[in-house]
Design goal:
The structure holds two protein chains of two kinds.
Chain A (H helix, E strand, L loop, with lengths): L3 E5 L4 H12 L3 E6 L10 E5 L5 H13 L6 E4 L14 H26 L6 E5 L3 H4 L5 H20 L6 E6 L13 H10 L8 H12 L10 E3 L5
Parallel strand pairs in A: 1-2, 1-4, 2-3, 4-5, 5-6, 6-7
Chain B lengths: L2 H17 L24 H17 L9 H5 L8 H14 L1
């Protein structure tokens, strides 16, 4: 049977691209987002779930346990941004960013471990950002949430190694998604100029790193964060 | 779910865990076995694995229980110390809902 993958945030952007990417590679993909998905494929199942709702996540995993009854790969993709100076960031939006970007991957990983430990090549992949090593002004909350994801990734890698689960993260720079819609062209150019490779990354670049993490030969690769374009 | 049924689930989970452990790492399968300390062979990963197995087995009986919550962790005496104390903790948890 083909590998079973769960991707959060598949209604658009990177998540949607990854779902299609892995469907093309014969995987069974379970996706989720707050709204419906336009992905129509016999090996795709979609759940409308708020990723910050613990009970809804429990329900999702109960369903996965019943059908398909297993899980090989979890991609914690969903994320939101908050591009504001600290002095102007409402506490409510800081909480929302932390809930979505850090608590959600925490909850999904925690629940996924139960199924992943029975897999032959179990993988957890998180999404970080170059906002962490670049310590970007105006993105304190977003960068802090991704710092949390990175530390979580490294510690989780240690805690689940006994189950054979690897846990890694990919940290893209700016990619053309809804996440950076509100960021000015000049700011994006300046950001790209700070990378070692002065080009914007694409969805394919993200998928390429994930392909590497996923392959069975990468069983010794864990607790790593790979920044696209080079950063740090 | 009554306490004898809970105890049976715990013991079955231990038996299942023992299948993947070496002869020197076997965990006592008796209903009055100690799980932590003393002669127990259970390390932290083994305990996590056992608790996840027990939760999964309880879920198979339509009984959703979260064993690793703050209440369990903050008790002076760990509810995970023996099969008996764990069964009592689960029974109390189910009754309190």
């Amino acid at each position: 049977m083909s590998a079973v993958m769960l991707i959060t945030g598949t209604s658009r952007g990177i998540g949607r691209f990854l779902a299609n990417h892995y469907l093309e590679r014969d995987m069974f993909v379970i996706g989720c987002s707050r709204g419906p998905s336009d992905i129509a494929h016999e090996r795709y199942r979609h759940f409308e779930v708020d990723v910050t709702d613990e009970k809804a996540i429990d329900g999702l995993f109960r369903d996965i346990r019943k059908e398909p009854g297993r899980l090989d790969i979890l991609i914690n993709n969903v994320g939101i941004a908050s591009m504001n100076p600290i002095a102007l960031t409402p506490v409510s939006s800081a909480r929302k960013v932390m809930d979505t970007n850090f608590i959600a991957p925490f909850m999904f990983s925690q629940r996924a471990i139960r199924l992943l430990r029975k897999s032959k090549h179990p993988r957890i992949i998180n999404i970080s950002s170059i906002a962490v090593p670049f310590r970007l002004e105006g993105e304190a909350v977003y960068a802090a949430s991704k710092s949390a994801v990175e530390t979580f990734t490294r510690i989780l890698a240690k805690e689940v190694s006994g189950f054979g689960i690897t846990c890694n993260a990919v940290g893209p720079g700016p990619i053309r998604t809804a996440l950076i819609r509100g960021v000015g062209e000049e700011k994006i150019k300046a950001l790209v100029a700070r990378q070692s490779i002065k080009e914007m990354a694409t969805f394919e670049d993200v998928a390429n790193v994930m392909d590497f993490f996923i392959r069975p030969e990468s069983r010794m690769v864990t607790g790593q964060v790979v920044y696209l374009g080079g950063a740090g | 779910m009554d306490k004898p049924s809970i105890k049976k689930i715990i013991v079955d989970s231990i038996k299942n865990l023992n299948l993947s452990r070496g002869p020197d790492e076997q965990i006592d399968e008796s209903p009055d076995a100690r799980l932590l300390g003393g002669e127990s062979n259970l390390d932290s990963l083994g305990l996590v694995t056992l608790l996840i197995d027990i939760e999964d087995n309880l879920a198979d009986h339509e009984c959703q229980v979260s064993l690793m919550d703050e209440k369990a962790m903050s008790r002076n005496r760990s509810p995970f110390r023996s099969v008996e104390s764990l069964a009592q903790y689960i029974a109390d948890f189910i009754e309190s809902r």
